[in-house]
């Protein structure tokens, strides 16, 4: 089967479902999904909060909100999944990161959005994005994900 093409503007990070990700109900646990989102976000935006050696930088990008729709059960499997990532909104010191967890045939298992705020590591006050930081987000433009309302 041909790989699902990544839509324009999205980054894509391939991952394996680990046995430890699966809960007693036989599907990927919600906490494991959050790790998938974190891992994908860090892979694409590795300079946000740490340097190339993993040491903390003067600024920190922290999660202040997650919105997640679980759309289909994902079970343990040898075939990889992809976490697609894009940026629907960039503010002065905050950014929204959107995600879809998908597989090769195109099944969407999860759709989500995270609000992140840039903080100064010394004061923990919000800090405006630099031009370089803003450019890293602008490399992945896209519309806000359609999430189910409460």
What does this structure look like?
The mean pLDDT is 91. It is globular, with a radius of gyration of 16 Å. It has two helices and five strands, in the order βαββββα. The protein is of the alpha+beta class and 150 residues long. The chain has helices at residues 30-44, 131-138, and strands at 11-15, 59-70, 81-90, 94-102, 108-120. The protein has a five-stranded antiparallel beta sheet with strand order 1-3-4-5-2. It is 15% helix and 33% strand.
The total of beta strands comes to 5
Class per helix and strand makeup: alpha+beta
Number of helices: 2
- Overall, the morphology is globular
- Helical content (DSSP H or I, runs of 4+): 10-25%
The order of strands across the largest sheet is 1-3-4-5-2
Which value, in Å, is the CA radius of gyration? 16 Å
Strand content: 25-35%
Instruction: Give unreliable regions as ranges.
Output: none
User: What order do the helices and strands follow?
Assistant: EHEEEEH
Distance between the termini: 36 Å
How would you state the average pLDDT, rounded?
A: 91
How many strands, which pairing sense, and closed or not: the largest β-sheet? Answer: 5 strands, antiparallel
As an assembly, this protein is: single chain
């Amino acid at each position: 089967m041909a790989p699902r093409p990544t839509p324009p503007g999205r980054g894509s990070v391939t991952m394996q479902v680990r046995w430890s990700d699966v809960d007693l109900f036989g599907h990927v646990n919600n906490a494991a999904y959050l790790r998938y989102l974190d891992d994908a976000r860090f892979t694409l935006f590795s300079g946000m909060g740490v340097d190339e050696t993993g040491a903390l930088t003067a600024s920190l990008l922290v999660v202040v909100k997650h919105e997640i729709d679980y759309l289909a059960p994902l079970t343990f499997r040898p075939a990889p999944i992809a976490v697609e990532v894009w940026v629907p909104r960039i503010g002065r010191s905050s950014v929204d990161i959107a995600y879809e967890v998908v597989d090769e045939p195109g099944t969407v298992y999860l759709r989500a959005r995270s609000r992140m705020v840039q903080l100064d590591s010394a004061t923990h006050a919000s800090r405006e994005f630099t031009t370089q930081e803003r450019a890293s987000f602008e490399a992945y433009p896209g519309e806000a994900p359609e999430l189910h309302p409460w």
